[in-house]
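Re: that chain you flagged

S.,

Sorry for the slow reply, it's been a week of failed gels. I finally had a moment to sit down with the sequence you sent. For the record, here it is as I used it:
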Amino acid sequence: MFHPLSLAIGLRYTRARRRNHFVSFISLVSMLGLILGVSVLILVLSVMNGFDREMRERILGVIPHVSVYGKNPIGDWQGLANELKAQPQVVDAAPFVNMQGMAAVNGEVSGILVNGIDPAFEPRVSIIADFVEDDALASLRPGEFGVILGDLLAARLEVFPGDSFTLVLPEAHLSPAGIIPRIKQVRVLGMFSLGSELDANMAMMHYLDVARLKGLGESAEGVRLKVDDLFNAPRIMWDVLNQLGGAYQASNWTSRYGNLFQSIKLEKRMVGLLLFLIIAVAAFNIVATLVMVVTDKRGDIAILRTLGCSSGAIVRIFIVQGATIGLVGTLLGAALGVVAALNVSDFVQMVESMFGTQFLSADTYFISYLPSQLIWSDVAQITVAAFFLTLLATIYPALRAARVEPAEALRYE
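Prediction finished late last night. Pasting the structure tokens below so you have them in one place:
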């Protein structure tokens, strides 16, 4: 615990106007550096946490955690689903039939990935039902060839609910006119908006309709699984394959998005390390500030030593001064960073609307908006680390002050 005299003098030195204005300027720069470093670090980590959250909740909430494919069409998919749900890690299962093709309407052509789903079972393994407009998912009925489009894909094709467009399939068949592609008129039932890249290329139909278009009859192509721990999906996939034997194949979400997820985690660590260097630079400025203060206060230190003040008390005086600068800068930076992290999404949205631009496009990035998730443990760790670094920065100047010889200092006063 600091002696009250050391605390009082240290705080007085912090508040006092100095004869050397350059010292005051460096002290202000040190505090501003801390405020900037702490606030930017909290803001950037919150944005990276937001990307991580959106990746887990939106993208990985829609795509299958694990997909089990039959080497042949699966007629009794429900029997297979019940067998797979016996695994303790498997939460639920639903059938699927996937198909790639092109959507053509009014001269516009766009690639499209059609997910054939069962609207009764899909909400058990996916969050897509939460993002479908007007509960259009329930209107998917076999034989009607209705489709639900991502809003970006619908905007590109300029179609709305009730409109129809031509679905061109990659399969071709012979006719008197030669080889022609298989086409089908489908009707738009509604749209969904995930705010991700899936909005630009994905569509949903009833799996029985897609199965007929692919020539599978009334069979499913496979069964998609929702697991209790998506990061454990690769191991669960192998457990499922071992249970089923060699008649099935499987894939999991890491084959498509695993590298992206790992990139986000790596970028969070590297960006955090680089931004922490700003705090380190501010701490070095505190060292420079206190060294100049010690030089400026040599006469005061000599008088204090003459009056009986110990070397330890001198050390504590300058530690108090440096710690005060560090504490104020760290707390102000943390407060500014928290406010920025809580409002950055709305601020970016406001700037986009003001200037009529979009910083993130789902055609390029996997989401179309800037997310932010403030994690208080990150705020606490950054604040403690920054303050600890500033405390370390006070040690050398404080020890230097304690080594001031009273007679030598007073000779030139």
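What I noticed first: The radius of gyration is 32 Å.

Talk soon,
D.
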